[in-house]
Write a structure and sequence with these properties.
The protein is about 45% helix and about 15% strand. By secondary structure, it is α/β, with parallel strands linked by helices.
Length: about 350
């Protein structure tokens, strides 16, 4: 886990940003962003802070102030080892909650008052408790894209990068049935990769109570899913891939596993944000299309100018879009939007996180 270093003057910072983002961000904006970035990096040193930048951050922020950049799994590992007094998490709230869970004595800041997530908001702790009553004794896995109260009710956490590894680990331990929350599509894609049959409990329209899912007769390995979706990845369709291949027959299509199973089945490769980045870096030639958040596409394209990214199907996450370089400066300067996690919830959720980190 190597820390990223940046220039300490406005002119050098501007030249660095221009080299990477001249085709993405207007020059006048790069000059203003360079001034802001230098001030952020100065305050980092003054306050003994580190900044974690998710792959979905705006390009000017992503390339100028984070000490570490990556997906939620990588940043969770960085969080677990952080020694700074302040952690500024340039991501959404559930990510900052994870950092606080792993670092209860550190001050964790989120550069956004809300930092929501459609997927995280699809489920709460009461929902998990209701599911566990329907399926007593069944091991429960939750995708890291959820709030701490959900993690506290589950046995394991996973990310898009290690969901398959976590499920295979549980299958080796003779778990024949697994609850997997809350992403409907990640669950379905993981079930397919691990040979499991997926079913979904539904709510009674009259009472609102959960009803057990109907399981196919003779199903040996059953995954119980949940109807949560990412509002970004839910927008991509098989037709997007068909249209791209009509225009660019040689294109390599990369999809995030939060996309629907139909989209993932048509893609050439499916993986987490970090896995997609590595795939593009290892491409020898050819065009590629990313079916994921569009700022991540800009960040990948800026690091791989020798490869051609097809700029189709780009969707911006409205929640990640709340966080800018200016917001990051304000958060660090004023130490605002402090993240707190109830100690009882923290102690229970860290067990599930630790089990994930132990698996890898």
């Amino acid at each position: 886990m190597s820390v990223i270093t940046y220039p300490d003057t406005v002119s050098a910072t501007y030249e660095r940003l221009k080299e990477r983002l001249a085709d993405v961000v207007p020059d006048v904006e790069l000059r203003m962003k360079a001034e802001t970035a230098v001030e952020v990096n100065r305050l980092k040193k003054e306050k003994n802070a580190i900044i974690l930048g998710h792959n979905y951050m705006e390009p000017a922020l992503f390339h100028s102030v984070p000490d570490y950049t990556g997906d939620s799994l990588y940043l969770a590992r960085v969080s677990a080892k952080a020694q700074a007094d302040i952690i500024v998490f340039c991501g959404v709230r559930f990510m900052a909650e994870t950092a606080k869970t792993l670092n209860p004595t550190r001050k964790v800041l989120l550069p956004s008052a809300k930092g929501g997530c459609s997927l995280a908001e699809s489920i709460n702790g009461a929902d998990v408790r209701a599911l566990k009553k329907l399926y007593p004794g069944v091991v429960t896995v939750t995708y890291i894209n959820c709030y701490a109260e959900v993690k506290a009710e589950c046995d394991y956490v996973c990310t898009s990068g290690n969901a398959e590894a976590v499920v295979k680990h549980l299958l080796k331990e003779e778990h024949r049935k697994i609850i997997f929350l809350p992403d409907e599509y990640l669950a379905a894609n993981t079930a397919r990769e691990t040979g499991m049959t997926i079913v979904y409990p539904e709510r009674d329209a009259a009472t609102g109570e959960l009803r057990p899912a109907k399981e196919p007769p003779g199903a040996a390995l059953v995954m119980i899913g949940w109807r949560g979706r990412c509002e970004v990845h839910d927008k991509f369709t098989p037709q997007d891939i068909t249209n791209a291949r009509k225009q660019f027959p040689d294109v390599t299509v990369l999809a995030h596993p939060e996309c629907s199973p139909e989209v993932v089945a048509l893609a050439d490769y499916a993986g987490s944000t970090t896995q997609m980045i590595k795939y593009v870096e290892n491409m020898k030639s050819g065009r590629y299309l990313l079916l994921t958040e569009c700022s991540m596409g800009d960040n990948i394209a800026s690091k791989n100018p020798q490869r051609e990214m097809i700029r189709l199907c780009s969707v911006r996450c409205p929640h990640m879009n709340e966080i800018t370089l200016e917001d990051t400066l304000a958060s660090l300067k004023n130490e605002q939007y402090v993240i707190e996690v109830d100690e009882g919830i923290r102690k229970r959720s860290i067990q599930a996180l630790d089990r994930m980190l132990a698996i890898g």
